[in-house]
Amino acid sequence: MIRVLQCVNDMHRAGLETMLMNYYRNIDRTKIQFDFLTHRPDKSDYDDEILSLGGKVYYAPRLYPQNYPAYFKYMKKFFAEHPEYQIVHSHIDSMSYLPLLAAKKAGVPIRIAHSHNTSIDKDFKYILKQYFRKKITKAANYYCACGQEAGEFLFPGKEFTFIPNAIEVDKFLYNEEVRDRKRKDLGLTSEFVVGHVGRLSYQKNHELLIRIFNELHKKDANTILLLIGVGEKENEIRKQVHELKLDECVKFLGNRDDVNELYQAMDVFVMPSLFEGIPVVGVEAQFAGLPCVFSDKVPVEVKFTENSEFVSLEKKLEDWADIVLSKKTDSDRINDLEFISTSMYNIKNAHKILEQYYAETESSLL
């Protein structure tokens, strides 16, 4: 059996983490087993399920600069105690340099860096992240990406393998009964519902989303905004909503385990991100039959339905609002079963890509 050590920040419900779980549930676990090295001290949403599927979860020190000596000491000991890991697959973009460097020092032969983004969060580690980005190919010796732009961003000039951000499609297909039930649960009747799923963070650009919704609400008062997710910007976003007197029509739903059903309650999905790889939520929303309005910073590779549109972040608020409102339609949401069965974003197809990739990389050791 191949045991793969997946390196992540944590395994809470978010796009990357959910994508990993989609693959984990669907791979042939008699041949390939995932274990997870997290960089948070606390238990995450998916930890129990990982254990139930035969995986292990390890908790390394957080990747703060002041922790680096302790981190490398931990990792040296970890790999000495776990020689079974011949493949380390890291998903923390430029920060993957650190676990993969530790793996290289420990003699781990297959060190995979996986790019999930096209830019870097501007937090206190921004300069370090830029440095690690330039060094990543010194620590990794295999490269994966969720899309062309993401791969070119983290691995300029290098060849990389495309691994689709695949989902469990059947959970997201449009179902009118689910829509009616979920809208009733949320206290919704005839409202036009704008939805967003994503971490409340700089990258997702909620500040603009709220201003767009404010403009939209002026044009049509019978509108509601659903925000699904948590994050470091939550207090700022709540303050902005309150100052714009939108408290009654913006619902903060937090982290949810029924996101697939919440898509059914929406009428349009809006994502004005500052940067993205291939957003898992964009894939999910399209399979749910939702019209989608993405910023022009979201790679066009995510689009696979005709009812998806990309709008410049330089556009006026009024233009954004008009485009979102133009998605208000009485047309039915239809599941394209032929496309669904063959799509590379369907985990029933995509898991074979990852299985083959691991098998081929391991065979290179023979």
What attributes characterize this protein structure?
globular; 366 residues; single chain; 6-stranded parallel beta sheet; 2 domains; 7-stranded parallel beta sheet; alpha/beta; Rossmann fold
Task: Walk me through the structure.
- The chain is built from 14 helices and 13 strands.
- By secondary structure, it is α/β, with parallel strands linked by helices.
- It folds into two domains: 2-166 and 345-363, Rossmann fold; 169-340, Rossmann fold (3-Layer(aba) Sandwich).
- The strands form two sheets. The chain has a seven-stranded parallel beta sheet with strand order 3-2-1-4-5-6-7, with helices on both faces. Strands 10-9-8-11-12-13 form a six-stranded parallel beta sheet, with helices on both faces.
- Helix 4 (97-105) packs parallel to helix 5 and helix 7 packs across helix 10 (259-265).
- The longest helix is centred in the last third of the chain and has 17 residues, at 347-363.
- The radius of gyration is 21 Å and the shape is globular.
- The model has no long low-confidence stretch (mean pLDDT 94).
Give a quick rundown of the structure:
The protein is of the alpha/beta class and 366 residues long.
What amount of the residues lies in strands?
Answer: 15-25%
Number of helices: 14
Number of domains: 2
User: Based on helices, strands and strand pairing, what is the structural class?
Assistant: alpha/beta
Strand order of the largest sheet: 3-2-1-4-5-6-7
Distance between the termini: 15 Å
Note the main sheet: 7 strands, parallel
What is the helical fraction, as a range of percent?
Answer: 25-40%
CATH H-tier superfamily of the largest domain: Glycogen Phosphorylase B
CATH class of the largest domain: Alpha Beta
Global outline: globular
Please name the CATH architecture of the largest domain: 3-Layer(aba) Sandwich
**Rg computed from alpha carbons, rounded to a whole number of angstroms:** 21 Å
Pfam family, one: Glyco_transf_4
Domain Glycosyl transferase family: 179-311
Organism: Anaerostipes amylophilus
Protein name: Glycosyltransferase family 1 protein
